[in-house]
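Two folds, back to back.
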Amino acid sequence: MREKRGSIATETEETEKRFIAKWRKHFDENRYFRFNVDQGLQSIGLDEHKQKGAMESATDRYLVNQAQKNRVRDCIENLNLKQSVYIVDFS
């Protein structure tokens, strides 16, 4: 199962590289965010929901890092700037 987990991680990293290449402008303008817990989840598979506590702990450790706090803040600010593409006229 470890080999499969490794291939899933590699696949998502390759997908990210292709996405950034295609949407470079958004990446450069700080409009693309990917939050990826890189330590503490290596032994937990996608189907192992019973290890929720371990996943939460690893995620908490990831998010307390100041660099991640800054990225989350930037992401929130970016979402706050988003305007609806729908025009709602209630008159």
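---
second:
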Amino acid sequence: MKKWLIGLMALILTALPLSACTQNNVQKIRVAEVTRSIFYAPLYVAISKGFFKEEGLDLELTTAFGGDKTMTALLSGGADIALVGSETSIYVEAQGSKDPVINFAQLTQTDGTFLVARTKPDEFKWEDLKGSTFLGQRKGGMPQMAGEFVLKKNGIDPQKDLNLIQNIDFANVANAFASGTGDYVQLFEPTASLFEKEGKGHIVASFGTESGLVPYTTFMTKKSFIDEKGDAVQKFTNALQKAQTWVEDHSAKETAAAIEEFFEDTDPELIETVVNRYKEQGSFAQNGILDEAEWENLQTIMEEAGELPKHIDHRTLVNTSFAEKAAKQ
């Protein structure tokens, strides 16, 4: 056998164990997000900037399109980690789960919806809503609960002072308003800013600013996954922290450019507008630590809406150790 061939085979044999070792060191993590939203910008920054890869993680991201579907994916083993509202973990716990769903890293810390009026007022006052037709969000969901909490906070009884419409599917709420239904509507971005740009409505208030800090969207997993693969959870949280810091330190324009690939059908300028709006009102959490005050605010909002099945202690469904360690690093 020629010397060069022998040398090549030796090189291949030497490289194979190294390659296998490298592959074995990479951990695959399946993440189910409740929807695709600019509201989750730090997650996409972590992917586009390679922060998960730096931590030795191979991230598989799927969009479940709904809180119930996201939680089903997690509970059934179809996903390792879920990105969804923290209220879902409370619902699961209240049903007597033997494998609790643990919130380990917070992504957003305010409500992400805005109040859009059909007619632009000279000066907006919440009392203007009295007697109006209001297109709200699905009953039992966090947007609806936060929305009603804010209305009550401003002296409006949603059931008595408004013609409240809540029977329209989430995907069709914006279309219903655009077609002429309602005087006011509660919308997520980028639809709210797009409507304003097209003259279909006017953003007059932020439910996020009004409702205070709350664990609106959180990464969570089953306790059994933490027990078995806590190292992967730590690596995931480390990558997220890098992205949260990056978003905080960079402009809305730079963040928009970093996540543009995840929103191919959205105008880059609109992405920048939305990112800037969320940055200005502090919607993006600067770290993943879900503190007790935010957890209690969440349950207050749920209780006000009549949707809190039972009070759950912060220590029962929240593990801050991963986020605290990531923040220190």
